[in-house]
Amino acid sequence: MIDSIANVLLYTCFSLLMGFLFLYALPNQYRPNLLEPKNLMKGIIILIPVLLLVPVIRVVLTLYKQFSVPLFEAIGTVVLEYSTGQAFVLSSIISIILIAYYTNLKGSWIAVLLVLLLIVLASWSSHGAAVAGMFGFIGNTLHLVAVSIWIGTLAVVGWFAYDWKDPRLFTRWFSAVAFAAVAIIIASGFMLMAAIVPEYVQSWLLTYGQLLLIKHLLFLPLLVFGLHHFLLGMRNAVDKVKVTKSFRIESMIALLVFGVSAFMTEQTPPHEVAQTLQTESVSPLMQLFLTGPISIGAITLSVSILSISLFVLGFFVFIYATWILIKSLHVNKSVFAFAVSIVLLYLTLMFSVEIGGYEQDETVYSSIKEAVSQTYQPGANIEVLVTEQHEEEIYIVYTVNQHDLVAEKVIHVDGGYKRLPAAMLTIGGTAVVDEKQKIRTFRVQSGNWHDDRYAHTYVTFGMIQDPIDVARVQIHYEGGSYIAQLEQQTFLNVVSSNENWADQHPIDFLAENGQVIETYSRNVMEEGVYCH
């Protein structure tokens, strides 16, 4: 929740700071006079690095509490090696420059450029960049820059303008800027979705997907308000009071979108929905619309009399809201009608949802390597390190391009091997071959790794390159200790229990003679199917 609040404030600060400085950089005739509250800008500038400090503190505490890294070492590691820490340091430097030279920079494009750099730094440390690398970083940067210019400008004008010189001139150029910003937002949104949510409709099963859908529905009235402002600029006489009120309403809707976006950062992004559902529950919102037992399956959208009726009603209410906003300029009535239409359109989609089973790949592959390679791009370097047969199932641990370490299940059949849906657990982040030890434990409650006879299945696997003379490991869970042999410096241990064991589970590295060489402190269990 703290991260969500920090992100809402961060997006708001970027928008207000960009809005003010962008308008100040324009010639006077293109903008209204602005009432800037005393020290508001300096307060916002100071707040930005403070808000970027929130994830830094979270990561430091994670290293300190869960990995037993000394506090000052954890601080140094995060500040020097993690993108969140580096972004905080650089943003602090830029903020100091902005505060020290604010009077001189105000009204120049240099100030706008410095704000752009702050946004770039925030995007650099964002989840999109962490998940999708440069592609996610570029998409997140474009998204945040466009939103800050569009929403920031209308919010500043709506709440801080007091003397309109030429409302028609302003609305005309701002409509063009808003149109360009919306185009960038849509394009960058597709970029981020392709990287983070490739299965958009399937993602509705998860809280992240539900929030993304709600965010997209809330975006529709923002587009209509943008059209409304463009048409206002085409009129011979512009009512300044109505324009101001319209800008304020749109900025409040945008703040609501910010809130949804911020809350999404605390949810597990569905890189692959079927796999995410192995360890994460179906969204409570989706559960309201599902009947019978809830199971993992592919979403299909079906047509019924109810869904058609809701869609038609929602569509006409949306058209009515658009008409009264553009023709009658009744902002309050239109906002209420938009809210009703969004609810109806949301219900249309939810009542259209049907969940079926995921289709199993019936292809029989000649080798384990060929079977697990189907998930990845052609040419991916797959190195199988561990194989364990349990009746017809085979547990496998392998590396992908010497970077990710993956545990997967396949089925042994006559003539070869078949793949299972939702049967992968992935350790990503830094390349596994670059780490001395990389070990994770996944607490699984559903899916193909889960033993249905028990409430929880605990899957611990990892690679140990240093010390080099480790022969086996002994994992000390709350419910007991288990030994796993190393094969090619890699091990796998799977155990199930009806008890929800504590996160703390130290792992002893044992030599061939059973002597403890080193103890690996592990104080966290993963709840998703992908971790760093």
Automatic annotation (TrEMBL):
Species assigned in the record: Halalkalibacter alkaliphilus
Protein name listed in UniProt: CopD family protein
Domain Copper resistance protein D: 170-263
KW Phosphoprotein (keyword) present: no
Keyword annotations from UniProtKB, A to Z: Cell membrane, Membrane, Transmembrane, Transmembrane helix
Transmembrane segments: 6-24, 44-64, 84-102, 109-138, 144-162, 174-197, 217-234, 246-264, 294-323, 335-353
Membrane-related topology note: Multi-pass membrane protein
One Pfam family named in its UniProt record: CopD
Record carries keyword S-adenosyl-L-methionine: no
Entry's Gene Ontology cellular component terms: plasma membrane
Cellular localisation: Cell membrane
GO BP terms: copper ion transport
Major site of localization recorded for this protein: membrane
